[in-house]
Amino acid sequence: MSEIHTRTNSGEQQTSTEIETEEESVDESLCPECGGHTQLDAEHGETVCEECGLVVEEDEIDHGPEWRAFDASERDSKSRVGAPTTKMMHDKGLSTNIGWQDKDAYGNSLSSSQRQKMQRLRTWNERFRTRDSKERNLKQALGEIDRMASALGLPKNVRETASVIYRRALDEDLLPGRSIEGVATSALYAAARQANNPRSLDEMTHVSRVERMELTRTYRYIIRELGLEVAPAKPESYVPRFCSELSLSDETERRARELIEAARDGGILSGKSPVGIAAAAVYAAALLTNEKVTQSEVSGVADISEVTIRNRYKELLDVDGLPA
């Protein structure tokens, strides 16, 4: 059906479809019973006629905030806009980035002069975001933490904690004489252990840009100076990840935990690497539950030698009273 065009007072054209839409929007504010005006009751989520009290609509979407405030000061403290702040960015996510696509709001490409202007704006924007050496240091370190956490598959809460630890080290002037990468790796290692999602030193060294000796030295220094409480890693913390990467069943994971608990009661965990104990427990549990897994596969996942797995494996079975 062809559309009928009409001429408005301003000389613009309107289609009959647009006119019908406007009429419908006008009619929506009128009561279908008495023709009176309707009003939105935001508290109850209803649209009610002012004349006859008819509830025209109910269960409407509340577009207001999810919090409640009882005075002006509380309302000001809870009010917010935009994305939440995060410790994972040096400016806590409060700054603005200028896109690199060189296109305007309509998707059209910018001219040569406009592209040059936008490039200058990007340069100055980046300079203002990192105005001093401390912010540049923090930006580089938080980028390193995010990169290593992604490579290790660590969750967001570990990254946030590592960012807070690094900020504390920077504020207390612990970085002179130490590399940014070393302190960032130490902060991530400590945060992973605090969140009961630990990674071994070898795994940290693989994704870091520092050697293991520097990592252990810096880690001990950061822990001591900041007074962080980091409990020794438990072998059980490694078991779920090892079983997941080896595609083992829940029964195998449960059996591995039982072997570790028996070894703890037998007093053979003292002085042993928790990674080695966890890997050996997973290997032994897989054999006990008739799941096929080799020492080489477990060694590759746990990043330890097969000799360590064999030694710990025999000790676990001896404590549990099973033949090796």
UniProtKB/TrEMBL annotation:
Disordered as annotated region, ranges: 1-40, 65-86
Ligand binding (Zn(2+)): C31, C34, C49, C52
Basic and acidic residues bias (residue ranges): 65-79
UniProt keywords, alphabetically: Initiation factor, Metal-binding, Protein biosynthesis, Repeat, Transcription, Transcription regulation, Zinc, Zinc-finger
Start and end residues of each TFIIB-type domain: 27-57
Pfam families per the UniProt record, alphabetical: TFIIB (PF00382), Zn_Ribbon_TF (PF08271)
UniProt record, GO biological process: transcription preinitiation complex assembly
GO cellular component annotations of the record: transcription preinitiation complex
Keyword Amino-acid biosynthesis belongs to the record: no
GO molecular function: DNA-binding transcription factor activity; TBP-class protein binding; translation initiation factor activity; zinc ion binding
Renumbered ranges of Sequence repeats: 143-226, 237-318
Family: Belongs to the TFIIB family.
Name of the molecule in the record: Transcription initiation factor IIB
Recorded name of the encoding gene: tfb
